[in-house]
Each structure stands twice: as structure tokens, then as C-alpha cells.
Specification:
Length: 201
């Protein structure tokens, strides 16, 4: 289970975590290829990010609940040796409140799969290797949607219908609420510094 780090400020919330790990099997899921375990191949996200002109940040994959985007520069996305990492600053009041109420459950993402291959396995369900994809949105998932979210829909793209796929996973949230912490009293240290400088006799 991956970690979602949440920092709550007075007027924003910082979310930092891995949206998806590369090269690791998912739980069994239903896809356009049937029931499979799925792996996103290393560098697939990196290639998708290099091609994308913009990636939206949404709440629960809802296009009407846009929280920002890469062009708005309130979300950074990059692939490292673990997977696709997202760091986002959100000023939406509902999301801030949900963070305080511990109702934010993790990340999910929407993809178009451009290239995949199926690996048949003798004693288990097939493994789907996603080798190339387009990433068009990343979502924050709250308590209204299961973190282990998998969905598909049909969308128009380049004058043809294509299948879009959404993926989510289980996360453990680590929350730091900076709105409730008492301010640090530095007066003792300031007085010591004054004495060392000879400001006080």
C-alpha cells in the first residue's frame, strides 16, 4: 500500500504521493482485454508526460470538478524508478475540508492505452503489459469513490471513438495539519542569543 502525504495549510492543501507504480502487478481487474492483472511498463508515463500539452487535476474523475492542471502549474507530475509521482497544491475549499476530515483516499488517473500486450500465464489470469499510453487527467479520490477504482468509458478523440480507462489503488494517508498547531515560542532562544551578544546584562 502506498503513502499519500497530505499537508493542510490555512488556505490550501499539499498532496504528495505516487499515482501508480511501474513494473508491478495490479490486483485482478476487468479491462477491455478481459480480466487481467496489469503492469504499466517503466518509462510509459515518462513518454506520456513528454507528449502531453496539458493534464488536468480533477476530483473523482469529474470534469466539472477541475482543481487545476499542469498548465495552471499547481500540479507536478514525473516518473521515477518507483512510478508516476504527483505533487499538487489545491486551494479548493471542499478539498481542504475533506482533507481535514480525513476523507481524501488517494490518487487515480485516466489513460488512453496506445499499445499493450497480453502475457498468458498457465496457472493464473493473463498479465496485461501497458507499453504506451496517453495521460489526460489525474484525480484526487475522496470517500465517495473506492480507492481501488477501475472504470472505462467511450470518448471521441481525433474523429474516432476510443476507450478511456481509469485506474486507482489503495493508499494510506499521512496527514500534517498546520492549521491546528500552536506557534512555536522562540522567546527563550532569542533571549539566549541576546545574552550571548551582550544585549542584556
Amino acid at each position: 500500500m502506498r503513502i499519500l502525504r497530505i499537508e493542510i495549510r490555512n488556505d490550501s492543501v499539499l498532496l504528495d504521493g505516487y499515482v501508480n507504480a511501474v513494473g508491478r502487478d495490479s490486483k485482478p481487474i476487468i479491462t477491455p482485454r478481459g480480466k487481467v492483472v496489469e503492469q504499466i511498463e517503466p518509462r510509459a508515463f515518462e513518454r506520456a508526460l513528454s507528449r502531453a500539452q496539458n493534464i488536468d487535476l480533477l476530483l473523482d474523475h469529474d470534469k466539472n470538478r477541475k482543481l487545476g492542471s499542469t498548465t495552471d502549474e499547481n500540479i507536478q507530475l514525473f516518473e521515477d524508478n518507483i512510478g508516476l509521482r504527483a505533487i499538487a497544491t489545491v486551494t479548493d475549499a471542499e478539498v481542504i475540508q475533506k482533507a481535514k476530515e480525513k476523507k481524501l483516499k488517494g490518487w487515480s488517473f485516466g489513460q488512453f492505452v496506445n499499445k499493450d500486450r497480453l502475457e498468458e500465464r498457465a496457472d493464473d489470469i493473463p498479465r496485461r503489459h501497458v507499453e504506451d499510453l496517453d495521460l489526460f487527467e489525474v484525480s484526487i479520490i475522496d470517500d465517495r469513490m473506492s480507492p481501488c477504482y477501475v472504470g472505462t468509458s467511450i470518448e471521441q478523440r481525433a474523429d474516432k471513438e476510443i476507450i478511456t480507462e481509469q485506474r486507482g489503488d489503495e493508499f494510506r494517508a499521512v496527514i500534517e495539519d498546520y492549521t491546528t498547531k500552536d506557534p512555536v515560542d522562540y522567546s527563550e532562544f532569542e533571549n539566549r542569543i541576546k545574552k550571548l551578544r551582550g544585549d542584556e546584562r
